[in-house]
Fold this sequence. Notes:
Elements lengths: L1 H39 L6 H26 L7 H16 L8 H25 L4 H19 L5 E2 L8 H4 L2 H5 L7 H19 L1 H11 L1 H6 L4 H27 L1 E2 L7 H11 L11 H20 L4 H26 L1
Antiparallel strand pairs: 1-2
Helix pairs in contact: 1-13, 2-8, 2-9, 2-11, 2-12, 2-13, 3-4, 3-5, 3-11, 4-5, 4-11, 8-9, 9-11, 12-13, 12-14
Amino acid sequence: xxxxxxxxASTGKAVRSSGAMQKLLxxxxxxxxxxxxxxxxxxxxxxxxxxxxxLATAVNGVLALGVTFVIISGGIDLSIGTVMTLxxxxxxxxxxxxxxxxxxxxxxxxxxxxxxxxxxINGTIISRMNVPPFIATLGMMMIARGLSxxxxxxxxxxxxxxxxxRDIMMGSVLGAVVPGxxxxxxxxxxxxxxxxxxxxxAKTVLGRYDVAIGSNEEATRLSGVNVASWKxxxxxxxxxxxxxxxxxIASRLNSAQPALGVGYELDAIAAVxxxxxxxxxxxxxxxxxxxxxxxxxxxxxGLRILNxxxxxxxxxxxxxxxxxVYMDIIRxxxxx
Length: 336
């Protein structure tokens, strides 16, 4: 038993050390990107551009936080982008112009619950009906996209008559308290969501079971854990983050755009993978995901400023994702 404990402890130390190295490499890569783009284009280092990077990271980062839990459990969620859009549309139906006209807080609450409900459906289909996560969430992606278009009647829903809604993302609480410090609220929402996610992953039963299921689902089931229920909870949590993303993007655009959403899931998953979360499950960190989200936004922004065609931007991002996955494979082989 002592030998087993010693082996387990050494393996745990190796995993933690490897994960720390992965985050360090990702952070180093982010710094290198900033230096390169700053040298190539003075426009990159302007305050307005930095603000644009943060705003782009805020939405993608929140989506990536939710996907982190799913990927750690050994699953995948392709529906977060369109579930985000559906949540935004529902917010518009509840509180937008010429609609029900309910207060902002109620619209935000219903938007969050919409995302959570969609995630719970994903989890139920996967855990109770044994449908592979890829297929289940692909189906939800199409369902959410279709419902968004139907509910919005294939046209945007605006929030022009809802004072304060745009301030959720674009306002500055800090600027109101400290003149001159016009930091968008999006920054505080992103890092606040990250702190909540980190707490859930590290300090709650859901977080512990999330890692356990991803590490060895069968062993977790044999130990008496109701894996199906916890899987459903994990996907529902991912949906809640997608719902928050829907509120955020609606606030940023001051409208709910029903045709938006496709492609966001790829950026979110890329951020999670680049941040060091293993696609094999059982390993990942919230800090790594945030770093990965900033890498994706910085890369996209920098290439756009350099007038690199969008198709080549996609090529570069794809190459980086493949390299990140390959590094994870090599890391796991060394641990084995």
